[in-house]
Design a protein that fits this description.
Order of helices and strands: HHHHEEEEEEHHHH
Number of helices: 8
Number of domains: 2
Low-confidence stretches: 351-357, 360-364
Helix content: 40-55%
Strand content: 15-25%
Amino acid sequence: MIITRYIAREIYRPFLTVVAILLVVFVTSSAAAVFNEVAAGLVAPDTVALLVLIKALIGLEVLLPVALYFSTIMGLVRLHTNGEMVALASCGISELAVVGTVLRLAAVVAALTACLSLYVRPWAYEQQYYLRTVAEAEFDVEDLEAGRLFISPDSDYAVYADAVDREARTAHTVLVQIRREDELMLIQAEELHQPERDRWQPREFIFLRGESYRLDRAGSQDMALRFERLTWRLRPPEEPSVGYKSKMQSTADLSHSEARKDLAEYQWRLSTPPATLLLAMLAVPLSRARPRQGRAARLLVAILAFAVFYNLMSMAKNLVQEGMVGRLPGLWWPLALLALVVLALLAGPHLGPFGRPRRAARPR
């Protein structure tokens, strides 16, 4: 039907624009966060692009429903304020027909969101955890920032350097603290050099012209020495183990788990498709406006409504994770509440003050 295609076009045109804008904002903020982690030595510089891409894939499961929600409001508000909805109603196109058109578009976005949430999300989180674990398992002179203290993720050692030459893999005026179970070592040197090595090879650091101090934790066998050249070798790194993370487990595995975090993650993944459909339906009554009425008020209401719903979903997920809420109501009560609100708003104009259907006015 031509009218149906016209309404759909008014929605998916801003949808593509909103998705692009949200994605650019999300990728920019994600890139800034990743670069901060690179500066702190928590992420390898050559993995920045891959990590940003992974974060974008994870964010799409939220960005797509949000984009559909706001694009539906933008498109329908324009039709209302231009008087086109009044013209469509006079032609027999009811709001129910508009809801049907919105639902068809939402079903496509919900299916894509389901694929992202059920299959892409665990894969993306697995890759992200692995890349971070690899970066944490390795220390490289290139991770140092001049004038900033570097602390290993396990706090076993800390390194400070006044100057760093990354191309030469050398640091100058270096102070290193190495913590072990039975001793604490301090190394002060004019220069630190790290030779090139293959991954999973022993890490070797060469200190030139300095002093080292060994402090015995158990007794009094402290030791101090001056050196022209001191080689410090770390044990060969093992293949990094990410460990158990709920977000990287497959949806099938989560469905059989009784752990609280697994249950919260499982229900979160299942909730994204119905949330997409309900938000799209909510956009229909929220977009009602009189002809030539301003659009800002409708958008403000839409933003507030989405903020309330998203916060309720986040709160419900936290309650499940903490064990304060079980499998039921789980994460389903915010969706049930949203469904009731949508039904009430859609039925409101067609019901009288006591919930009875409104009767058409009789001509005099």
